[in-house]
Amino acid sequence: MDRLQAMTVFARVADEGGFAAAARALDMSPPVVTRVVAELEQHLNTRLLNRTTRKVTLTDAGDTYLRRVRGILHEVDDAEAAATASTRDLQGAVHVLAPPALATYFLAPLIPRWRVRHPRLMLDIATDNFVAGRVDEFDATLLVVPDGFDGNIVARKLFQGEAIVVASPGYLLRRGTPRQPPDLERHDFLRDAGLAARSGTRKLCLFPVSGEGEAHELTPPVVLQSTSTDVLLRAVLDGTGIAVIPRLLAQRFLATGALVHVLPDWILSRYTVYAALPTQRMLPARTRAFLDFVSDQVAEALAAQEA
Fold it and tell me: Where is the HTH lysR-type domain (predicted)?
């Protein structure tokens, strides 16, 4: 058994969620993929995957093994990149993890320019609403952390932003425009369930932008909650209610008039976006190229959101 190939096949099955999809991605036949994983499980004397007729999921042992395998495969990529760096352009893949909203609204628009600069270097972007515990699995992980965060991470600061209150013109025409934070308790609220879980409170707490004055803790009636920023954004654009959205996402809609900045003297929070790096790995050239590229593009990308 080729253990490196077996690890590669297993990781792809886990990523694709099935043997057939992994076979297509690897340009292998499904029976071969199935056999390779079965031989790996036999070699390890443990089941790595739960198989049903509809999907494939990781066992606890499989999840633990996958985390280690990703690191090994990345190290192999690093070694190959280092061996070829002096004789040819950077090539291979940069494995990036990001929250879905950052992947869609920040990273995705940068890809055409990335392709021009690094045509032989593929971006492999995975998304997860809870990225903090997976930093060591990827070359770079985009983290959104609150103002004043003091974590023990190796990271490059990319940009800062704010979470602001927004609503559609149609909604405000029907329900009126809040003038003070307490007015929100008479409005339909679209709640970010993930943010509520991370903050440990279901209350909406607004702070003055100036930093002076008291914060307001509010309990507006929740008509929709979701961990998906896209769902909340779509709902607020359709006039379902009032939402708190990162300015990065809201800015293009504010510029076109599709959204209105409500209570502009108040914010939910300030945040910083970092590119976090694995703590026990050397920084390969391809990862440095990604970090340099993203850092170079930040100002233009943020400006484009306002255009």
Answer: 1-59
The CATH class, in words, for 1-72 is mainly alpha
d(CA 176, CA 171): 8
Distance of CA 141 to the CA centre of its chain: 8
List the one residue out of 65, 128, 72, 92 whose CA is nearest residue 281.
72
What distance in Å separates the CA atoms of residue 108 and residue 225, rounded to the nearest whole number? 25
305's tokens: 């959101």
Read off the pLDDT band of 194 (50, 70, 90).
Answer: confident
> What's the CATH fold of domain 160-272?
D-Maltodextrin-Binding Protein; domain 2 (3.40.190)
What distance in Å separates the CA atoms of residue 263 and residue 247, rounded to the nearest whole number? 13
Domain boundaries, the chain: 1-72, 160-272
Largest distance between two CA atoms of the chain: 68
Distance, in Å, from the CA atom of 5 to the CA atom of 39, rounded to the nearest integer, reads 11
